[in-house]
Each structure stands twice: as structure tokens, then as C-alpha cells.
Amino acid sequence: MSETLTEPHVDHDDAHEHPSDWAYIKIALILAVFTGIEVLTYFESALPIFENTSVTIATLMFLMVVKFYLVATWFMHLRFDNKIFSQLFVGGLILATGVYVIALAAFEFWA
Amino acid sequence: MATATIDSPDTHAADGHDEHHTSTGISNTKLAMWAFLGSECLLFGGLISTYLLYKTRRGPGPDNTTIPTDIFDIPFTSVSSFVLLMSSLTMVLALSALTRGDNQATRAWLLSTAMLGGVFIGGQVYEFTSFLREGVGFTHNPASSAFFTLTGFHGVHVSLGIVMLMSLFVASKQGKLTPKNTETVEIVGLYWHFVDVVWIFIFTVIYLIPVE
């Protein structure tokens, strides 16, 4: 009887297929369009809706989050990689956001 | 009689793909880079928060009342941001070319990425110089100190990224960068894309969101 042993805990969860070059180009085009829209918000005369500051801020924050998500998931391959990488990065991001929102709130309300 | 064969850790490593004989089954180097990037979120979070606290703090005297938001050149910074964003594309194309074993294309994309990074840094130097010409220096007032610290730290990160990219370019020229080393390029790429996503945040929060 023969038995083949491999190293323990070896799995290939982080093995992934990279997207095609064309997929990357399409993502870059989307990012370019979003950046264009962001810049448009600066020129209020281009789109009268951006004369409303609340609309401008909401639009900018939404576009920023989507751009961030697209770069992280496609260009940084989080979409295709092992989940532990996403957890490490998102963990740092949540910790940073939480800590600094609390810090800024403290300065805003109690300083 | 039982015979046991243990796969050598190098059996799969040589093909340059994502099979790693570590306790987690994933690359320790890549794991370390992601942990580093997670910690970098805290560094930049601190710098961005500091700027948000001080962005409207003008100096006490009549000569240091100008704050960075008064003199931002948004069209110019938009072009710089676009250049940095496109450098992320050339970076992934470099990795893709190396995976295919196309060394010439890898070198071309690596060089393009470094050059786009250089253009971005050139833009930042121009911006800082124009601020200084307006009399807004690092110690001008709290708002300018926070601004120069944040964007300066980001610029240093971009510059380090350019050094890494040029090192990869030289290694490729010397024939030391092969499809077996895709992970090295991927890790430098992760750093580069992180610098890009930080700028996505800075560009929106610092430059575009109107100051009341």
C-alpha cells in the first residue's frame, strides 16, 4: 500500500485566473469617466445640479467609493484572491475609519 | 509496506503560480504586503483626519491667512489624478505581460508606469512651488502644515514606488525577471495600486469637496 502525503493545510485558495487585458482597459475607462464626472462637479456651471452642495458631496463620495472598490477588486485582484487578503485590508480600513471618525467627532462636539 | 512521499515545497513554487507550501497555504510575502497596506490605512487616515481638522485654520497674523483651498488649481490637479489613475492600468498590464512571458511588453509597461508616476510627482513639485510663490509654505499656518504633510507623505510613497518599478525594470533587462517572479511584480503592483487608491480619496476629500 502506498500513501502520498502533502504538506498540511496546503490549499490553493489564492490561485486565480487573471482577467484579460481588455477587462483591465474597460475598468480603466470606467474610472476615467468617473474622474471626469468628479471634475465636472467643480464647475458648477457645467451642470446646474451641482450648485447644490449636498448633491455635490453625495455624488463625490459615491464616485470615490466606487473608484476605490474598482481599483481594489480588479487591479489589486481582491476579487479573485484569497479572502484573507480582503479581510486584512478591509480590517485596516474599517479600523482607520472607525478610529478617525471617533476622533473627528470628539473634536467636533467636545473640543 | 507503506511508503510515504512528501511533496517538496519547491515542487510547485518553480512554476511561479499561486501555490504556496505555507501553514496558511498562501504566500507569506503577499500576506505581509496586505498587512502592511492595512496598517498604511491607519497612517493615511491620521494624516487625512488632521487635515480635515485644520483645513480652515488660518494663521493669526494678516500675512498668513491664505489656506491651501484658496489657491487650489483643480484643473491641473485633475490631470495629475488622471495620470496616476492610468498608471494603475499600465501596472496591471505589466503583470499580465509577465504572466504571458512577454518580457519586452513587461519592460515597456513597467517603464510607462514609472514615467506616469514621475509625471505625477512633477505635478506635485509644480503645485508646491506655486504655493510657495503665493507665500504659502509649510509653516505658514496650521492648514498649510497639514496639507503639505499629507500630500508630501503621499508623494514620498509614489517616489518609493517609482524606485521599486525601476528596480524591476533593471532586473528584467538583466534577465532576472521571468514568469517565475510574477509574485514580486504583483506585490510591487499592490503597493502602487494602494498609492493610487489613497490619491482617489485625497483628490475627492481634500481637493473637490467644497469648504464651507
Descriptive account of the structure:
The complex is a heterodimer of chains A (111) and B (212). Chain A has 111 residues and is mainly alpha-helical. In chain A, 66% of the residues lie in helices and 4% in strands. Chain A folds into two domains: 19-80; 81-111. The longest helix of chain A has 28 residues, at 83-110. With 212 residues, chain B is an all-alpha fold. Chain B has helices spanning 10-13, 28-54, 74-100, 103-133, 142-173, 182-208, and one strand at 3-6. Chain B contains six helices and one strand, in the order E-H-H-H-H-H-H. Chain B has a single domain (25-59, 74-208), classed as Up-down Bundle (Four Helix Bundle (Hemerythrin (Met), subunit A)). Classes of the chains: A mainly alpha (111), B mainly alpha (212). At the A-B interface, strand 1, helix 1, helix 2 and helix 3 of A face strand 1, helix 2, helix 3 and helix 6 of B.
Please give the number of β-strands of chain B.
1
Number of strands of chain A: 1
Specify the helix fraction band of chain B. Answer: 55-70%
Coarse shape of chain B: elongated
Low-confidence parts of chain A lasting 5 or more residues at pLDDT below 50?
Answer: 1-14
Count of the separate structural domains of chain B: 1
> How confident overall, as mean pLDDT of chain B?
89
Instruction: Specify which chain pair forms the largest interface.
Output: A-B, 60 and 67 residues
Give the helix tally of chain B.
6
Measured between the Cα atoms of the first and last residue of chain B, the distance is: 81 Å
Helix content of chain A: 55-70%
CATH superfamily of chain B: Cytochrome c oxidase, subunit III, four-helix bundle
End-to-end distance of chain A: 75 Å
